[in-house]
Amino acid sequence: MAFSHFRDNLEVLAAQGLYRSRRIITSPQGINLQIDGKKIVNFCSNDYLGLANHPSVVSAFKTAADQYGVGSGSAHLICGHSVAHHALEEELAAFTGRDRALLFSTGYMANNGVISALLGRGDAVFEDRLNHASLLDGGLLSGARFKRYAHADVENLNVHLKKATGNKLIVTDGVFSMDGDFAPLKALSEAAKASDAWLMVDDAHGLGVIGERGGGLLEYYRLDQEDLPVLMGTLGKGFGTFGAFVAGSDALIETLIQKARTYIYTTALPAAVAEATRASLKIVIAENWRRDKLKKLADRFRLGAAQLGLQLIASASPIQPIIIGDSQRAVDISNALLNAGFLVSAIRPPTVPQGSARLRVTFSALHEEHHVDRLLDALDIATTRLKAKG
Ligand SMILES: *Cc1c(COP(=O)(O)O)cnc(C)c1O
């Protein structure tokens, strides 16, 4: 029977607590979701600022759909690049303090496209061990020599850099997606300069969320285009919409337009998504209270979780994982939390290293302190009960 051995593999995954399945959401995105007719409080979204369903963002989207239609018709290089896309690119360049920005349809594609456009056989790519899958896949696809360095370990990176030949690209998450900690970008930038390497940072979880103006880690560490020549950001997280961009020098962006296959051979984002993102960018810049609120919520959670004896990671972002270790136990706690009315996802290998399954708690600027307190109560009950059972 075709695929019967896949059935066996699926059963193995299930037995290991590694089976993945989807929940069908019937409500809009936000901190309150409806699943199977049941209302739950959402603690696993990347919509950190609460913009995915913000009235001005939704209204910009609708107005633009009336103006431009829904489909973009083709790739950017054929006839899909509208004035809406172009304006958003200019605004993202200004926002990040770069010469130019280039939109991609997804972050996954941006990462794949950029690394392969910049490197090939004979070159070398250096990746933090905990980088997002799209960066790792991009590095492998490029055909360059692929080296992973220990997490946030610049000394270890330097050892690898010394042995390298050809063009060298150092690639890292900014705010790490599954841990919430910050890459040591100042030191990485210095290491890059000293070794004549380029630095690429994927700040999917920092942009909009970190820094006074939401400029992300480049604002936090004050890194200009010389210090950080390849900046990648996504629009589906802090910005609350969809898509991604790369920002940097004119030469970088022109190279990507000519060479990045995931830019050239794919349909452009709908123009209405670009217009919605322009609306969300305005809110990102103007409404610092959203970032202050996130900080307060995370601090309150950390204090409470520490009192419960839960194992946290040193994270100053709205990503606050609780390390559980065993995959099945992480799933069991996540299910118990769902029964209690809280959605917290269990993140397991291979998304995170073996033995480090975790509950990835994330906060939204729309949460209130009472949500945090109720989550802590539920965590206390779920972890204690499941511990007692062994
Ligand atoms: C989500 C994410 C991506 C992928 O972005 P999409 O637009 O969802 O494809 C890339 N890098 C990191 C660090 C991410 O968290």
Global mean pLDDT: 96
Helix content: 40-55%
Shape: globular
Element string (H = helix, E = strand): HEEHHHEHEHEHEHEHEEHHHHEHEEEH
Structural class: alpha/beta
Largest sheet: number of strands, sense, barrel closure: 7 strands, mixed
Number of helical regions: 15
Bound molecules: pyridoxal-5'-phosphate
Distance between the termini: 40 Å
Description:
With 390 residues, the protein is an alpha/beta fold. It has 2 domains: 18-49 and 288-389, Aspartate Aminotransferase, domain 1 (Alpha-Beta Complex); 55-286, 3-Layer(aba) Sandwich (Aspartate Aminotransferase, domain 2). The chain is built from 15 helices and 13 strands. It has helices at 4-15, 55-68, 76-80, 83-96, 107-118, 133-141, 154-162, 185-194, 217-220, 250-259, 261-264, 271-286, 289-307, 327-339, 369-388; strands at residues 32-35, 38-42, 100-104, 124-128, 145-149, 168-173, 198-202, 230-234, 244-248, 319-325, 342-343, 345-347, 357-362. The strands form 3 sheets. A 7-stranded mixed β-sheet has the order 3-9-8-7-6-4-5, sandwiched between helices. Strands 1-2-11 form a 3-stranded mixed β-sheet. Strands 10-13-12 form a 3-stranded antiparallel β-sheet, covered by helices on one side. Strand 4, helix 6 (133-141) and strand 5 form a beta-alpha-beta unit. The radius of gyration is 21 Å and the shape is globular. Pyridoxal-5'-phosphate binds at residues 106-108, 111, 132, 134, 173, 177, 202, 204-205, 234, 236, 244.
